Amino acid sequence: MSMMYQAYQNHMDLTAPWRTGASAALKYLNLVPAGTSEKPFGRLAAALELISRSALTYHRPEFDIGKVMVGNDEHEVTEEVTFKTPFGSLLHFKKENAPEQPRMLLVAPMSGHFATLLRGTVKTLLQDHDVYITDWHNPRDIPLNQGKFGLDEYTEHLITFMNELGPRSHMVAICQPSVSALAAAAIMSEDNHPARPASLTLMAGPIDTRIQPTKVNEFAKSKPLKWFEENMINYVPFQCKGAFRQVYPGFIQLTAFVSMNLERHIKSHVDLADHLAKGETEKAEVIKTFYDEYFAVMDLPGEFYIDTIRDVFQEHLLPQGKLTYKGRTVNCASIKRMGLMTVEGEKDDICSIGQTLAAQDLCTGVRAYRKVHHMQAGVGHYGVFSGRRWNNEIYPLLRDFVHVNS
């Protein structure tokens, strides 16, 4: 199983000429005059485009956030890397001539996709905050001599990044990194670190997966840890910069995501082919844009994946007070003088109701008036941090919470 990734990469390399040929042929077919889109030319063009798109990409898409409204004024947004390690960059969305706003670190999950999956979240937050994001690098591009990256290293990055932002900054963690975000806040509080978060917001995160376990949680506990090590961890193919690094391949994670909603994804591609054949460009572009992002996959470092399976999903170390960071016990009760907000989605089938709320009970040192919990009705996992209800119902609460704690 450890060589599956190599076999997959070999297959992609061998079939690359087919995709290149389909793309080249499509350019010629696009010269066919308008009005023939529903004829055989249209169907052929649709088939060729689907073939040309039948591969995953391992390169991060662009955030492409050109401008944002701050109050009644529009401001240019430029991306600026303010700190960088082999495994991740601290990316700042700098707004030209914008008024001073609360600094915020948005912690992106390392779960098979790039940080650009939070593009919509960033756009919304930029209205009222000075936003930075954890822009994780793809392990397949990181040479083996750069060392390992496990749960400790993840938490260490958050502490380092918060130090770069400086005092009175805020931290918002989306999904999986909620555990590391809470651990980082606890360690920084215990050390009386000057850059400890002024507020911490945990959104749909697996703080205590013993509560109403989902299918994802049950799968993580259904096998011994050795099974995950032998069946899920692969070596990066020799064609890549990170050759022979142990990873949990992004294509395996994507396959798992797709299989959870297979019928919907099949229907989307059938609809895409139909729109392309009929020349319905705008409708096709919506589907293509979604899958351009969805099929841009990132591998997970093998150490991080195994640490997460063991510590978070199998042994539940954090809620039991047994999680350690570089040998130190993570004591959530040490968190004081900090606002704590937890957000959950009613229909979340990845991180169920109660799992994130558990952080409130662990943080006994946070005063009750500085704690906020919100359960958003009618949304699933992604609806907690993207979409209409995030923008109109969840974000205003988060914005007010951050400003009160600034």
TrEMBL record:
Question: PHB de-polymerase C-terminal domain: from which residue to which, for each copy?
Answer: 204-405
Gene3D superfamilies recorded for this chain?
Answer: alpha/beta hydrolase (3.40.50.1820)
Superkingdom of this protein's organism: Bacteria
Pfam families, alphabetically?
PHB_depo_C
NCBIfam families under this entry?
PHB_depoly_PhaZ (TIGR01849)
What the entry lists under InterPro entries is as follows: AB_hydrolase_fold, PHA/PHB_synthase, PHB_depo_C, PHB_depoly_PhaZ
Q: What is this protein called?
A: Poly(3-hydroxybutyrate) depolymerase
Native organism is: Tardiphaga robiniae
